[in-house]
Every structure is written in structure tokens, then in C-alpha cells.
Amino acid sequence: MAGLRHVSRGWEARTSASAKNVSREQFEVFHERLRTAERWLYEAAELEPAWASPWYCLQISGRGLEVGPEIARRRFEATVRRAPHHLEAHQQQLQQVCRKWGGSHEEMHDFARASMLAAPGGTLLGQLVAVAHLEEWLSLDSGPDAAYIRRPEVAASLNEAADRSYRHPDFVRRGGWLQVLNSFAMAFSLAGDREAARECFRATEGGSPSSPGPT
Hints:
There is one protein chain. By secondary structure, the protein is an all-alpha fold. Helices cover 68% and strands 0% of the residues. It contains 11 helices and no strands. α2 (24-47) packs antiparallel against α3 (53-65), α5 (87-97) runs antiparallel to α6 (105-118) and α10 packs antiparallel against α11 (194-204). The relative contact order is 0.08.
């Protein structure tokens, strides 16, 4: 709990502003709190080797401390060894490999689809595909963004992911299922597929997720 709290306080100090709008003093507090968090989290990981939570939190602190892709990947792998279909761990790794955090669109899309296909049908991991498309859409200027999200191959990718996740007969409404449906609803809406978006909105029954898309 102490480790998680210091991670949260670290990101509070940094804020969600782009790096160019974060002051030197904010970054100093950000990094100091994340380093404190890491000491607590490694201690928790040693005390409870079977727990996934310390490693998941280390993914978040590691991104802020810019530990690099190799260490970030090791932390992700440590989490999913303990919880193979951990949605939030996969979401963190998706952010780690996206362009704005030093990766690329290609790496991001490859990771999203590979993770989805490696999981059994009906898990929440299909959301990664939708979020990856939303990330690329967000990275583009007005005009090219709409052209991208309305490509036929994007629609095919979204439908494949939907079939593997919330449309699958084994899909269970638990964990982050609301944010999965809302991510798909947004992606389908932007892609111009109103019927697919309507299907998602109806399935949420008016529920609202805590983290609906890219971060």
C-alpha cells in the first residue's frame, strides 16, 4: 500500500501535462516519490513472491523513471507470470511500447494483437487493439486522424478484436469489462460504425469506467 501510494503521489506531482509543460521542480518531486515507491514495492515483492500487484505497480513507476524497454519488459513479464491475463499490466506495457513513450505505432499494434491472440477467447485483452488504434488516432492532426480510423483495415482489426473479447460466448462481465466496452464504443464511433458502437453502449447499461482509453 505504501508503494502504491507513493506511485500515485508521484504522478499527482507530475500531472497529466505533456513533458514540456512540467517544471523541473515537478519532475524532481515526481522522481523522488517514484524511487521511494520502488523501495517499498521491491520489499513487497520479496515478502510475497506470488503476488502480481508489486510488479504491476513497478511497471507504472518504471515508466515514470524511464527505466528503459528491457527492464520494463521484465517487469511486465514478472506480472503476467503471476497473473497471465492481467488487463492493467497489458495496458501499461502497451503504453510502454507506444510512440509517445519511446516505442512505435508498429510495435504497439503488434503487441496488442499478439496479446489478444495469445489469450483465450472471451478475455478482456481484446481492448488493447481498440486502445492502440485510439492512440494512433490521437497522435495525428485533424483530417489525417479521421482518415486513419476509417480505414477498412482498421475496421477489420476492431471487429476481429471484438469477436475475440466482448462478442465471444465466454466473455464474462468482471474486472475492467466496462472500460473494454467503452473503448470499443469510442473506436467504432470514430470509425463510423454506428451499429457496432450502439451494440457496445447498450451492453454497458449506462455504466461508466474509471479508465476508458489511452493515457
